[in-house]
Design brief:
The protein is mainly α and 153 residues long. It is built from 7 helices and no strands. The chain is elongated, with a radius of gyration of 18 Å.
Amino acid sequence: MLVSALVAFVHFAAAFGLAAALVYERAVFTRHPTATDVRHLAAADRWFGIASVVLLGAGLARAFLYEKGWAFYAANPFFHLKLTLFVAVGLLSIYPTLMFIRWNKAAKRGQAPVVTEMQHQRIRLVMNLELAALVGIVLSASLMAHGVMQSVR
């Protein structure tokens, strides 16, 4: 029981860490970031990636080993929606990550990056979509955990 609680804690902490990193990125990213801003964005993006891996690992451990059993999750459409949204967030995050890596090389030399208007708009859109998907993940998780689809049948 203690291990199950600890895995749940790690799962929730990683989820909050992922959300915090994304909110931080969204708050710091501007049309004209400084070299310091870019270093902070790159660091936050690394934490976002680390939190994502930990979240997935702990979530799968909970699904397979500790909570309601794999059969419950496999049969629940909200679990599938939650995973789909998680994958969508991961795929969406590729573009900003690549840009932050590119800009961070210049930032390490003390140079501010040149961010085009299109890059700025795309990255803001991607971050907004990621944040919206996180809301969908939380809603799906709640509906899944309470067995909403099982009660409808």
